[in-house]
Amino acid sequence: MMKRRRSLLILSGNSPKSMQDAPVFEPDVVLFDLEERVLPQEKDSARHLVREALSFLDYSKVEVMVRINPLDTEEGQKDMESIPRVKPGALVIPKANPEIIRQVDSILAAIESEEGFLKGGIELIPVLETALGIETMNTLIRISPRVTGVWLNAEGLMAEFGAKRTKEGDELLYVRGRVGIACRAAGIHAIDTCFTDSNDNEGLEKDALTAKRLGFTGKLALDGRQIDTLNTIF
Protein backbone atom coordinates (compact mmCIF):
# COMPACT_ATOMS: atom_id res chain seq x y z
CA MET A 1 0.00 0.00 0.00
CA MET A 2 1.27 3.48 -0.89
CA LYS A 3 2.06 5.93 1.90
CA ARG A 4 -0.24 8.88 2.39
CA ARG A 5 1.40 11.90 0.82
CA ARG A 6 -1.61 14.17 0.41
CA SER A 7 0.08 17.26 1.83
CA LEU A 8 3.77 18.11 1.84
CA LEU A 9 4.66 21.19 3.88
CA ILE A 10 7.88 22.69 2.51
CA LEU A 11 10.07 24.63 4.94
CA SER A 12 13.40 26.39 4.75
CA GLY A 13 16.23 24.28 6.11
CA ASN A 14 17.47 27.17 8.22
CA SER A 15 14.32 27.92 10.22
CA PRO A 16 14.52 26.24 13.65
CA LYS A 17 11.08 27.46 14.80
CA SER A 18 9.37 26.15 11.66
CA MET A 19 11.09 22.81 12.12
CA GLN A 20 9.70 22.51 15.64
CA ASP A 21 6.21 23.71 14.78
CA ALA A 22 5.66 21.88 11.45
CA PRO A 23 4.02 18.69 12.81
CA VAL A 24 1.35 20.79 14.57
CA PHE A 25 -0.34 21.45 11.20
CA GLU A 26 -0.61 17.66 10.62
CA PRO A 27 0.83 17.43 7.12
CA ASP A 28 1.55 13.94 5.83
CA VAL A 29 5.07 15.08 4.96
CA VAL A 30 7.45 17.75 6.21
CA LEU A 31 9.91 18.72 3.48
CA PHE A 32 13.07 20.54 4.54
CA ASP A 33 14.55 22.57 1.71
CA LEU A 34 18.31 23.01 1.44
CA GLU A 35 18.16 24.39 -2.09
CA GLU A 36 16.01 27.38 -3.12
CA ARG A 37 15.02 28.62 0.33
CA VAL A 38 18.57 28.79 1.70
CA LEU A 39 21.02 31.55 0.76
CA PRO A 40 24.46 30.42 -0.47
CA GLN A 41 26.23 31.72 2.63
CA GLU A 42 23.82 29.79 4.87
CA LYS A 43 24.08 26.36 3.22
CA ASP A 44 26.45 24.83 5.77
CA SER A 45 24.47 26.03 8.78
CA ALA A 46 21.19 24.83 7.22
CA ARG A 47 22.66 21.41 6.51
CA HIS A 48 23.78 21.15 10.13
CA LEU A 49 20.39 22.32 11.39
CA VAL A 50 18.51 19.74 9.33
CA ARG A 51 20.82 17.00 10.61
CA GLU A 52 20.16 18.09 14.18
CA ALA A 53 16.40 18.22 13.62
CA LEU A 54 16.31 14.72 12.15
CA SER A 55 18.47 13.43 14.99
CA PHE A 56 16.68 14.97 17.97
CA LEU A 57 13.16 16.23 17.15
CA ASP A 58 10.09 13.98 17.21
CA TYR A 59 8.73 13.48 13.72
CA SER A 60 7.09 10.14 14.49
CA LYS A 61 3.72 11.32 13.18
CA VAL A 62 4.95 12.72 9.86
CA GLU A 63 7.22 11.57 7.06
CA VAL A 64 10.34 13.70 6.65
CA MET A 65 11.93 14.49 3.29
CA VAL A 66 14.89 16.71 2.44
CA ARG A 67 15.40 18.54 -0.83
CA ILE A 68 19.13 18.62 -1.46
CA ASN A 69 21.09 20.94 -3.72
CA PRO A 70 21.79 19.82 -7.30
CA LEU A 71 24.17 16.87 -7.35
CA ASP A 72 26.57 18.57 -9.76
CA THR A 73 27.35 21.31 -7.20
CA GLU A 74 29.68 21.30 -4.21
CA GLU A 75 26.72 21.88 -1.90
CA GLY A 76 24.87 18.96 -3.42
CA GLN A 77 27.86 16.70 -2.84
CA LYS A 78 28.04 17.82 0.80
CA ASP A 79 24.31 17.20 1.21
CA MET A 80 24.66 13.67 -0.16
CA GLU A 81 27.50 12.86 2.20
CA SER A 82 25.74 14.27 5.25
CA ILE A 83 21.95 14.05 5.13
CA PRO A 84 21.43 10.33 4.35
CA ARG A 85 23.37 9.44 7.50
CA VAL A 86 20.50 10.72 9.66
CA LYS A 87 18.07 8.62 7.63
CA PRO A 88 15.33 10.86 6.19
CA GLY A 89 12.36 9.07 4.74
CA ALA A 90 13.24 10.37 1.28
CA LEU A 91 15.57 12.67 -0.56
CA VAL A 92 14.07 15.11 -3.03
CA ILE A 93 16.36 15.44 -6.05
CA PRO A 94 16.28 18.71 -8.03
CA LYS A 95 16.68 18.91 -11.81
CA ALA A 96 16.45 15.15 -11.97
CA ASN A 97 17.38 13.06 -14.98
CA PRO A 98 18.15 9.34 -15.31
CA GLU A 99 21.91 9.69 -14.82
CA ILE A 100 21.51 11.76 -11.66
CA ILE A 101 19.12 9.20 -10.17
CA ARG A 102 21.62 6.42 -10.93
CA GLN A 103 24.37 8.35 -9.16
CA VAL A 104 22.23 9.10 -6.11
CA ASP A 105 21.10 5.49 -5.89
CA SER A 106 24.71 4.31 -5.89
CA ILE A 107 25.77 6.80 -3.21
CA LEU A 108 22.85 5.84 -0.99
CA ALA A 109 23.60 2.14 -1.32
CA ALA A 110 27.15 2.76 -0.10
CA ILE A 111 26.01 4.90 2.84
CA GLU A 112 23.33 2.42 3.87
CA SER A 113 25.95 -0.30 3.92
CA GLU A 114 28.36 1.82 5.98
CA GLU A 115 25.70 2.87 8.49
CA GLY A 116 23.97 -0.50 8.77
CA PHE A 117 20.69 0.88 7.44
CA LEU A 118 18.11 -1.21 5.63
CA LYS A 119 19.12 -1.45 1.98
CA GLY A 120 16.87 0.76 -0.15
CA GLY A 121 15.25 2.30 2.91
CA ILE A 122 15.87 5.90 1.84
CA GLU A 123 13.44 6.72 -0.97
CA LEU A 124 13.84 9.20 -3.81
CA ILE A 125 11.48 11.89 -5.11
CA PRO A 126 12.85 13.36 -8.36
CA VAL A 127 11.80 16.93 -9.12
CA LEU A 128 10.45 17.46 -12.62
CA GLU A 129 11.31 21.08 -13.38
CA THR A 130 12.94 21.01 -16.82
CA ALA A 131 11.81 20.00 -20.28
CA LEU A 132 14.45 17.25 -20.23
CA GLY A 133 13.06 15.92 -16.97
CA ILE A 134 9.57 15.72 -18.45
CA GLU A 135 10.79 14.09 -21.65
CA THR A 136 12.82 11.43 -19.79
CA MET A 137 10.24 10.89 -17.05
CA ASN A 138 9.21 7.36 -18.00
CA THR A 139 12.82 6.20 -17.93
CA LEU A 140 13.65 8.15 -14.79
CA ILE A 141 10.88 6.72 -12.61
CA ARG A 142 11.83 3.13 -13.42
CA ILE A 143 15.58 3.35 -12.84
CA SER A 144 15.47 2.53 -9.15
CA PRO A 145 12.88 1.03 -6.78
CA ARG A 146 13.78 3.93 -4.47
CA VAL A 147 11.76 6.25 -6.72
CA THR A 148 8.35 6.24 -5.06
CA GLY A 149 7.04 9.52 -6.41
CA VAL A 150 7.83 12.64 -8.39
CA TRP A 151 7.24 16.30 -7.69
CA LEU A 152 6.19 18.59 -10.53
CA ASN A 153 7.78 21.98 -9.84
CA ALA A 154 5.89 24.30 -12.15
CA GLU A 155 7.83 27.38 -11.06
CA GLY A 156 11.07 25.82 -12.25
CA LEU A 157 9.55 24.62 -15.51
CA MET A 158 7.96 27.97 -16.31
CA ALA A 159 11.25 29.72 -15.54
CA GLU A 160 12.95 27.53 -18.13
CA PHE A 161 10.26 28.51 -20.62
CA GLY A 162 10.59 32.19 -19.73
CA ALA A 163 6.90 32.26 -18.86
CA LYS A 164 4.82 33.05 -15.80
CA ARG A 165 2.38 30.80 -14.01
CA THR A 166 -1.25 31.79 -13.80
CA LYS A 167 -3.77 31.00 -11.09
CA GLU A 168 -5.93 29.24 -13.66
CA GLY A 169 -3.02 26.92 -14.52
CA ASP A 170 -4.00 26.30 -18.15
CA GLU A 171 -0.32 26.29 -19.10
CA LEU A 172 0.17 23.19 -16.94
CA LEU A 173 -2.64 20.99 -18.22
CA TYR A 174 -0.53 19.05 -20.71
CA VAL A 175 2.39 18.52 -18.34
CA ARG A 176 0.17 17.61 -15.40
CA GLY A 177 -1.64 15.10 -17.58
CA ARG A 178 1.61 13.44 -18.63
CA VAL A 179 2.91 13.26 -15.08
CA GLY A 180 -0.35 11.91 -13.69
CA ILE A 181 -0.59 9.14 -16.28
CA ALA A 182 3.08 8.12 -15.99
CA CYS A 183 2.94 7.93 -12.19
CA ARG A 184 -0.34 6.03 -12.16
CA ALA A 185 1.07 3.50 -14.62
CA ALA A 186 4.20 3.07 -12.48
CA GLY A 187 2.27 2.88 -9.21
CA ILE A 188 4.04 5.83 -7.59
CA HIS A 189 3.00 9.19 -6.12
CA ALA A 190 2.40 12.21 -8.34
CA ILE A 191 3.00 15.31 -6.19
CA ASP A 192 1.69 18.56 -7.60
CA THR A 193 3.34 21.95 -7.59
CA CYS A 194 2.45 24.44 -4.86
CA PHE A 195 -0.32 27.02 -5.07
CA THR A 196 1.55 30.20 -4.32
CA ASP A 197 -1.19 32.44 -2.86
CA SER A 198 -1.54 31.21 0.71
CA ASN A 199 -4.41 33.66 1.34
CA ASP A 200 -6.63 32.33 -1.45
CA ASN A 201 -8.19 29.13 -0.14
CA GLU A 202 -10.83 29.05 -2.89
CA GLY A 203 -8.09 29.18 -5.51
CA LEU A 204 -6.19 26.44 -3.69
CA GLU A 205 -9.26 24.19 -3.69
CA LYS A 206 -9.81 24.71 -7.40
CA ASP A 207 -6.16 24.09 -8.25
CA ALA A 208 -5.94 20.98 -6.07
CA LEU A 209 -9.15 19.52 -7.52
CA THR A 210 -7.80 20.02 -11.04
CA ALA A 211 -4.58 18.25 -10.07
CA LYS A 212 -6.51 15.36 -8.53
CA ARG A 213 -8.62 14.94 -11.68
CA LEU A 214 -5.39 14.73 -13.68
CA GLY A 215 -4.04 11.90 -11.52
CA PHE A 216 -2.09 13.60 -8.75
CA THR A 217 -2.05 12.04 -5.30
CA GLY A 218 -0.84 15.03 -3.26
CA LYS A 219 0.39 18.59 -3.39
CA LEU A 220 3.05 20.88 -1.94
CA ALA A 221 1.96 23.38 0.70
CA LEU A 222 3.76 26.65 1.33
CA ASP A 223 1.79 27.45 4.47
CA GLY A 224 0.36 25.36 7.29
CA ARG A 225 -3.04 26.90 6.61
CA GLN A 226 -3.20 24.98 3.32
CA ILE A 227 -2.82 21.55 4.93
CA ASP A 228 -6.43 20.83 5.93
CA THR A 229 -7.68 21.62 2.43
CA LEU A 230 -5.12 19.37 0.78
CA ASN A 231 -5.71 16.50 3.20
CA THR A 232 -9.45 16.72 2.52
CA ILE A 233 -9.17 16.88 -1.28
CA PHE A 234 -6.53 14.17 -1.70
From TrEMBL:
Gene3D superfamilies: Phosphoenolpyruvate-binding domains
GO MF: lyase activity; magnesium ion binding
Record-annotated HpcH/HpaI aldolase/citrate lyase domain positions: 6-222
Record: residues binding substrate: 67, 129
Requisite cofactors: Mg(2+)
Entry binding sites for Mg(2+): 129
Any Gene Ontology biological process: oxaloacetate metabolic process
InterPro entries per record: Aldolase/citrate-lyase_domain, Citrate_lyase_beta/mcl1/mcl2, Pyrv/PenolPyrv_kinase-like_dom, Pyrv_kinase-like_dom_sf
SUPFAM superfamilies linked: Phosphoenolpyruvate/pyruvate domain
Source organism, top-level taxon: Bacteria
UniProt keyword list: Lyase, Magnesium, Metal-binding
Protein name: Citrate lyase beta subunit
